[in-house]
TrEMBL record:
K(+) binds at N56, D116, S150. This is Bifunctional NAD(P)H-hydrate repair enzyme. One of its GO terms (biological process) is nicotinamide nucleotide metabolic process. GO terms for molecular function: ADP-dependent NAD(P)H-hydrate dehydratase activity; ATP binding; metal ion binding; NAD(P)HX epimerase activity. Keywords: ATP-binding, Isomerase, Lyase, Metal-binding, Multifunctional enzyme, NAD, NADP, Nucleotide-binding, Potassium.
């Protein structure tokens, strides 16, 4: 479960309305922060606790008191006027019973560990020069962030002027989108989650449509093979090849579709690409498709259950014609299949409106900017909001690729994928992703679930293949969907 800062605030309010002691929750949070420092930095000489003017600062005062109770040396600093504190934060400061100094009094010492309790996930404005100066002075010291490193937006992961780079981040009950979106993820260090006592029913009531992409989100949508299964019942995926000198991308996608569980995979190729493909194919079939008329004849066979168009296909009027012919059938549009509509994206979106959520679009940042230039340029929007607005405009599931891939559905669901290793950034990797999604679509997995599952399986394949992988390695390392089902993941 992911919760936006606004949703987490609502959960806090619902907890208080239900009779749960909000100060007891703060004490649990502050002590969890203290436990993190004591466990991770047993040789620390001094805990430097930086407290902000809200409840995040209240957690810091609780942590400071906990450190003092262990006999650790504590240096306590406050932002703003502590006399203006109210509610639980005021009580936490009073119970702390320690003197504090203004932030400008902070001077680092050898053996310091910083507790960043200035701002939590709800920060929506750039940090002041005063705080930026403190961040600069703390450079090189271990930092434990309370909820989220100060300066990182909990909603978008964007850095608001400056931000701490934490070694550990301690958050409570549910992670925020900013924990997993870049660049925020790079500022969080090791993320630790603590249950401080808010019932799950309250979290569920307050939560929205943001999710961390894990098998729990889509495993129930995966097909289960039965004793009577045969290759046609497992779906038939069609992948379109480029010309004679651009056939490799389609073969990568086709093999991934086969490994993802499709019963049959066929590469559709123009006459000049038939022999090149034939020389490299065994389990994957080959079909000659010379023009749109031949395509219409081929897809009249309803046993063809999904298609992948774009990898290596080329950018031309024919690309647009092929795409428009395929709309209405489960379809992955990637690479050239997207860029072909860069001059007139609305033509694609208008066609998709008649067949909503049958298409998965998989743009990287450059392709996204070609199709949705206004969204790409809007610095006020985070990646999830950009992907969601794009999905609603296009009437398609949008998988916005990157190190922090986001999958969005027109119905409002958003999944943030966080399991992909950096060595997936290699030529052909995206073709494997498209084929994996296509293989799932061919088996009847709905578009959003197929896109989310494909992204996770792709990341897991990268982890299993290891550093130094090439795209050719990825299909052989894809986990089988039956492994996911059998493991209950």
């Amino acid at each position: 479960m992911l919760m936006t800062p606004e949703e987490m605030g609502r959960a806090d309010a619902l907890a208080a309305e239900s009779g749960i002691d909000s100060y007891a929750l703060m004490v649990s949070a502050g002590r969890a922060v203290a436990a993190c420092l004591l466990r991770c930095y047993p040789a620390a000489q001094r805990a430097v606790v930086l407290c902000g003017p809200g409840n995040n600062g209240g957690d810091g005062y609780v942590a400071a008191r906990a450190f003092a109770e262990t006999g650790m040396k504590v240096a306590l600093f406050h932002l703003g006027d502590p006399a203006r504190l109210s509610g639980d934060a005021l009580r936490a400061r009073q119970d702390c019973g320690m003197d504090s100094a203004g932030l400008d009094g902070f001077r680092p010492e050898q053996g310091d560990v910083i507790i960043d309790a200035l701002f939590g996930a709800g920060l929506a404005r750039p940090l002041s020069d005063e705080i930026a100066a403190v961040i600069a002075r703390a450079e090189g010291l271990p930092v434990i962030a309370v909820d989220l490193p100060s300066g990182v937006s909990g909603l978008t992961g964007q850095v608001l002027g400056a931000a701490f780079t934490a070694s550990h981040t301690v958050t409570f009950m549910a992670a925020k989108p900013g924990h997993y979106l870049l660049p925020g993820r790079a500022h969080c260090g090791r993320l630790e989650m603590f249950d401080i006592g808010i019932p799950r029913r309250i979290l569920a009531e307050a939560a929205g449509d943001h999710h961390l992409n894990t098998p729990a989100l889509w495993a129930d949508s995966l097909p289960r093979a039965g004793a009577d299964s045969h290759k046609f019942s497992r779906g038939h995926l069609g992948v379109f090849s480029g010309g004679a000198s651009a056939t490799g991308a389609a073969r990568l996608a086709a093999m991934a579709g086969l490994k993802a569980g499709a019963g049959l995979v066929t590469i559709a190729a123009a006459p000049q690409a038939i022999l090149v493909n034939a020389a490299h194919l065994t389990a994957i079939m080959l079909k000659r498709i010379e023009d749109v008329s031949a395509l219409r004849d081929w897809i009249a066979d309803k046993r063809l259950s999904a298609f992948v168009l774009g990898p290596g296909f080329g950018i031309s009027a024919e690309t647009r014609d092929f795409a428009e012919t395929l709309i209405g059938r489960p379809l992955v549009l990637d690479a050239d299949g997207l860029t072909a509509f860069a001059e007139q994206p609305e033509a694609l979106f208008d066609r998709l409106e008649a067949a909503p959520e049958t298409c998965v679009m998989t743009p990287h940042a450059g392709e996204f900017a070609r199709l949705f230039p206004d969204l790409a340029e809007d610095s006020d929007l985070g990646k999830p909001e950009k992907a969601l607005r794009a999905a609603r405009r296009a009437h398609a599931v949008v998988l916005y690729k990157g190190a922090d891939t986001v999958i969005a559905s027109p119905d409002g669901r958003i999944a943030i994928n966080a399991n992909a290793p950096p060595w997936l950034a290699t030529a052909g990797s995206g073709d494997v992703l498209s084929g994996t999604i296509g293989g799932l679509l061919a088996q009847g997995v709905p578009a959003f679930e197929a896109a989310a599952a494909g992204a996770w399986l792709h990341g897991e394949a990268g982890n299993r293949a290891g550093a130094g992988l090439t795209a050719e390695d990825l299909p052989t390392h894809l986990p089988s969907i039956h492994e996911i089902i059998d493991n209950g993941r």
